[in-house]
Amino acid sequence: MSEDVHGTEVTLGRIETEVALLMRLGEATRRGTGTMEHRLLDRAAYVILRHLDAAGPQNVSALAARLSLDGSTVTRQVSALQRDGLISRTPDPADGRGTVISATAAGLQRMAAVRAARTRLYGDILAAWPEADRETLADMLHRLNEALDARTRRR
Amino acid sequence: MSEDVHGTEVTLGRIETEVALLMRLGEATRRGTGTMEHRLLDRAAYVILRHLDAAGPQNVSALAARLSLDGSTVTRQVSALQRDGLISRTPDPADGRGTVISATAAGLQRMAAVRAARTRLYGDILAAWPEADRETLADMLHRLNEALDARTRRR
DNA sequence: CCCAGATAGCTGTATCGTACAGGTAATTTT
DNA sequence: AAAATTACCTGTACGATACAGCTATCTGGG
Q1: What is the pTM of this model?
Q2: Which is it for the CA torsion B139, B143, B148, B154, positive or negative?
Q3: Residues in domain HTH marR-type (chains A, B) (predicted)?
C-alpha cells in the first residue's frame, strides 16, 4: 500500500516535470518557428480565431471567459485583429453594450494556414512515431486538457 | 493508402489542437494558482532552479543554451534570483569571463516547495485517473518532449 | 608572444501578452 | 426609477523575452 502511494507520487512528479518542459519547449518552438508561419499570427490571435471558428461569432466577454483571459486582454487582441481585417465587430442586436466578434474570411484563411503549418511541424517532429502512438498521445493530451479545464472552471 | 494518409493528418491535427490548448490551460492554471505557490517563484525562476538542481552549477551561457533562451534573458533572471538569495554567482575559476551560477539551499528548498505544490495540483486534477493511465500520459509527454527537443536542437 | 577574432556576460531598449483599476454606457433587479 | 450589475474600453504596469551594442577575457595563427 505504501508502495502504491509512492508509485503514484513518482508518476505525478513525472507528469509535472513533463508538462513544465512541454510549456517551455512549446514556447521555444513557437518563437523559433517565427518569421514564417508565426509572423502571420501571434499566439493570442490564433487561439481567438480558432475559437471563433469552432464556436461561432460571440462577444468579448464570452471569448474572455472561454479563454480564461481578462476582458481587457481580449479587447486589445480583438482590436489588433480588426486592424488587420481578420475579425469584424458588429453591435450586438440583443444587447446594446455588447459587440459581436466574427472571424472574417481572411481571418479564417490565415488561421487555417497557421494551423496547417503547425500540423506539418508536428508531422516533422513525430515523423518516427507509429500512428498508434500518435493516437495515444492525442488521446492522453485530450483527456489531460479535459481534466485541467474542468478544474479551472470548477474554481 | 489514401485513407492512411488521411488518418495521419487527422491525428496530427488533433495533437496540434491539444498542445495549443494545453499551453493555454497551463498558463491559465499557473496564473490562477497565483498568490499561493506561484507567488513564491515565477516561471522562469522555477525552470532555472530545476535545471540547476538537475544538472549542477553552470554558467549563464550553458543555462541559456539548455533552456533555449537568450543570454540576456538568463542574466536578468539570474539577477533576480540572486537578489532573492536563491542562487549565487561565483567567478568561473577556469574562465575569467564566466560566472558560475549555483542554487543556494534556500533556492532548492523554494523550488522543491513549488514542485511539491504542483505535484499536489496534478494529483487533484488527475484524481479520477487510474495509475496506468497516468503512467501512459507521463510516457507520452516524455516522448513528445524528446522529439520536440531533438527538433529544436537540430535547427 | 601578440594581435585579431571569438566568446561570456551585462545593459539599454523594444515588443508582446497579460492583469488590474477605473471609466462610460447599457441592462437588469428590486 | 434608483441601485446594482454587466460589457466594453482605456490607462497603466509588469513580466518574459529578444536583439543590438558594450566591455572584459580568452584563444589560435603568424
Answers
A1: 0.86
A2: positive
A3: 18-146
Mutate to test the interface with B, among A151, A152, A154, A155 (most CBs of B within 10 A): A151
Contact residues, A window 59-98, toward B, CB-based 8 Å cutoff:
67-69
pLDDT band for position B39 (cuts 50, 70, 90): low
Listed by start position, the domains of chain A span 1-33, 34-154
Cβ of B22 within 8 Å of Cβ of A141? The answer is yes
> Order of strands, edge to edge, in the sheet holding A99-103?
A58-59, A99-103, A87-91
Q: Which of residues 18-57 of A touch strand C (CB under 7 A)?
A: 42-45
Distance from CA of B33 to the nearest CA of A (A): 9
User: Given phi > 0 = left and psi -120 to 50 = alpha, else beta, which region is A8?
Assistant: alpha
Task: Name the residue with cell 479520477.
Answer: B128
Q: Give the separation between CA A37 and CA B80, rounded to whole angstroms.
A: 34
Q: Which of B25, B122, B126 sits opposite A152 (nearest CB)?
A: B25
Cβ neighbours for B90, distance < 8 A, ≥ 6 positions apart: B99, B100, B102
pLDDT in tens, B87-142: 999 999 999 999 999 999 999 999 999 889 889 999 999 999 999 999 999 999 99
Angle between helices B43-55 and B71-83 (to 10 degrees): 90
Classify B100 as helix, strand or coil: strand
- Residue B104's closest CA among B90, B92, B115, B118? B90
B96 CB-to-strand D distance under 7 Å? yes
CATH of the domain spanning A34-154: 1.10.10.10
Nucleic strand C under 7 Å from the C-beta of B59: yes
